[in-house]
């Protein structure tokens, strides 16, 4: 298997140097390049096409939120696979982290996290999973979005079958595939298939985005 290619975006050169040394110490990881702000990150990603981007939130010129949005938009416009974006933040319940997740990031880690945790997080998002549990995502949005008005369910919600809506609601509550399978008397493989179809129909990338969708919309309680 080829190594996971990682780009690093942070405005602190010393921090970048430390993370680069960590990444290059791993046989299954490859360092694709680094940038000091979001504008340079956009050019770097378009040129090197990394698998994962470690993205600082607070940076001069273009911050990590806008950079995430731009990078994923460029991939969609260019027709190439988008990288997974893993946000680096200083605070556990950070409004900017929530905004980055809305922009398409697959999760976040604290900048002072244990090195082994950061490495595990990179591998996890590369596999298409999020690095924060759904219930933690709900807590994050509840903390930063008090008073935020929810939108009505979009037309894509009507494309979901009754079973898919049941699976959606359980996943949005933070249940794992195994827990959903037990609650719905299904196999884990069947649940995984349903989750994949739900994500595709709603235009979502992963379970974190699913929770964001559930939190931001007023969905019918009965279908």
From TrEMBL:
<dbReference type="Pfam" id="PF00196">
    <property type="entry name" value="GerE"/>
</dbReference>
<dbReference type="GO" id="GO:0006355">
    <property type="term" value="P:regulation of DNA-templated transcription"/>
</dbReference>
<feature type="domain" description="Response regulatory">
    <location>
        <begin position="5"/>
        <end position="126"/>
    </location>
</feature>
<dbReference type="InterPro" id="IPR058245">
    <property type="entry name" value="NreC/VraR/RcsB-like_REC"/>
</dbReference>
<keyword id="KW-0804">Transcription</keyword>
<dbReference type="GO" id="GO:0003677">
    <property type="term" value="F:DNA binding"/>
</dbReference>
<keyword id="KW-0597">Phosphoprotein</keyword>
<dbReference type="GO" id="GO:0000160">
    <property type="term" value="P:phosphorelay signal transduction system"/>
</dbReference>
<dbReference type="InterPro" id="IPR011006">
    <property type="entry name" value="CheY-like_superfamily"/>
</dbReference>
<keyword id="KW-0805">Transcription regulation</keyword>
<dbReference type="InterPro" id="IPR039420">
    <property type="entry name" value="WalR-like"/>
</dbReference>
<feature type="modified residue" description="4-aspartylphosphate">
    <location>
        <position position="56"/>
    </location>
</feature>
<keyword id="KW-0238">DNA-binding</keyword>
<dbReference type="InterPro" id="IPR000792">
    <property type="entry name" value="Tscrpt_reg_LuxR_C"/>
</dbReference>
<protein>
    <submittedName>
        <fullName>DNA-binding response regulator</fullName>
    </submittedName>
</protein>
<feature type="domain" description="HTH luxR-type">
    <location>
        <begin position="153"/>
        <end position="218"/>
    </location>
</feature>
<dbReference type="Pfam" id="PF00072">
    <property type="entry name" value="Response_reg"/>
</dbReference>
<dbReference type="InterPro" id="IPR001789">
    <property type="entry name" value="Sig_transdc_resp-reg_receiver"/>
</dbReference>
């Amino acid at each position: 298997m080829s190594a996971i290619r990682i780009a690093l975006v942070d405005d602190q050169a010393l921090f970048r140097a430390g993370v680069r040394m960590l990444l290059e110490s791993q046989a299954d990881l490859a360092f694709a390049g680094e940038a000091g702000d979001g504008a340079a990150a956009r050019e770097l990603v378009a040129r090197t096409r990394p698998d994962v981007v470690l993205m600082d939130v607070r940076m001069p010129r273009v911050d990590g939120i806008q950079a995430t949005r731009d990078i994923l938009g460029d991939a969609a416009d260019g027709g190439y696979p988008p990288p997974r974006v893993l946000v680096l933040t200083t605070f556990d319940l950070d409004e900017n982290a929530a905004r980055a997740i809305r922009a398409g990031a697959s999760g976040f880690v604290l900048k002072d996290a244990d090195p082994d945790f950061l490495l595990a997080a990179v591998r996890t998002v590369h596999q298409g999973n999020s690095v924060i549990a759904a219930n933690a995502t709900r807590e994050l949005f509840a903390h930063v979005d008090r008073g935020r008005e929810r939108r009505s369910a979009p037309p894509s919600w009507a494309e979901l079958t009754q079973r898919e809506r049941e699976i959606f609601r359980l996943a949005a509550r933070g249940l794992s595939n195994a827990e959903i399978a037990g609650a719905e008397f299904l196999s884990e493989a069947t649940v995984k298939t349903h989750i994949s179809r739900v994500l595709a129909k709603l235009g979502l990338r992963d379970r974190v985005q699913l929770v964001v969708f559930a939190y931001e919309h007023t969905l019918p309680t009965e279908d």
